[in-house]
Design a protein that fits this description.
Layout: E1 2-6, H1 10-21, E2 25-29, H2 33-43, E3 46-47, H3 51-56, E4 63-66, H4 72-84, E5 90-93, H5 99-110, E6 115-122, H6 127-130, E7 133-137, H7 140-153, E8 161-165, H8 169-197, H9 205-212, H10 221-232, H11 248-259, H12 264-275, H13 282-295
Parallel strand pairs: 1-2, 1-4, 2-3, 4-5, 5-6, 7-8
Antiparallel strand pairs: 6-7
Helix pairs in contact: 4-5, 8-11, 8-12, 8-13, 9-10, 10-13
Amino acid sequence: MRLAMIGLGKMGGNMARRLRRGNIEVVGYDRDAGTVSALAEESGMIAATSVADAVGKLSAPRIVWVMLPSGDITEGQIKDLREMLESGDIVIDGGNSNYKDSQRHGAMLAEKGIGFMDAGTSGGVWGLENGYCLMVGSTPEVAATMTPILQALAPAADTGWAHVGPVGSGHFTKMIHNGIEYGMMQALAEGLDLLRGKQEFKLDLAQITELWRHSSVVRSWLLDLTAEALEGDQNLENVAPYVADSGEGRWTVVESIDQGVAAPVLTLALQMRFASQDETGYGFKLLSMMRNAFGGHAVKSSGDGK
C-alpha cells in the first residue's frame, strides 16, 4: 500500500517513519528539500520534488495525507489537490484544522468524487515510538480503505484509533480532547505551584510527582512528563512563564457557548494561557514545560522577549 505524505515536520516526518516501519510505502514531500532527502535516505521513503510529483508517484486509488499547519496553508493545499486528483482518490487532513473547515473540505472534494478523512492526531513527538491516537471522520468506505494505514500509525492494530463518525467528527473529537488537555495541565500546574509555595515544608516536587505516578488517582502521561522534567530542574529558571495556545482550546470554548453547555474549567484554563502573556509565575513555567515535553512546542527562554 502506498500514500503521499505532504509536510514532513515534527509530526509528518515521524508519521512517515512509523508508516515505513509498518511496511507502508510513503512518497514524501516538504518544501525543505534537505528534509526530504534525509528522510528518504534514513527510512526508504520515496522522495518527491513537489506535490504534483508526489501525486504522480501514486497509483489509483491515490491517497494523499496532508500534515500541514491549519488555516490558509492547509486550505490552499487541499484546493490544489482537488485539481490534481480524480474520483476515487482520498485526501486526509491530519493537522489541527477546525472541524467546520473539514466539513467544508469534505463537501468540496465530494463534488469531484474525491474521498476525505479528517484525522485528529494525538501523540506529539512521542508518536514515532508509542504510536499515535487517531480520531478519524469519514464515510465508511474511506475508513475501510484507510484501515491498514491507521493500524500502522496506531499503538496496535486494534487499539489507539477509531472511526468516530462522519466527516468533521474526527477534528471535532480532537478539539474537545485538546480542551480537556488544557484543563488537566492547568490543574497540575496550579497544584504544584501551591506545593512549591509552602516553603516551611521544603517539599521536593520531583519526589512528589514521581510518587504520584504510582497508583495515585491523578497518575497520567502529563504527570509522567512533568515528573521527568522536574527531576532535572525544579526551578525552571530558563523557562519563561509564557504559554501559547494552538487554537483548539479557543474553538472548544466557542463550541461550549454555541451549545449552551457550561465548561468553566476548560474556559478558565484557556484564559490562564492568555494571562501568561502579562504575568509571571511558576505555574506558567510548568505549563510551558509540559507543552514542550509532549508536543515539542517551542519554549521561550527567560531571556527571550515576548
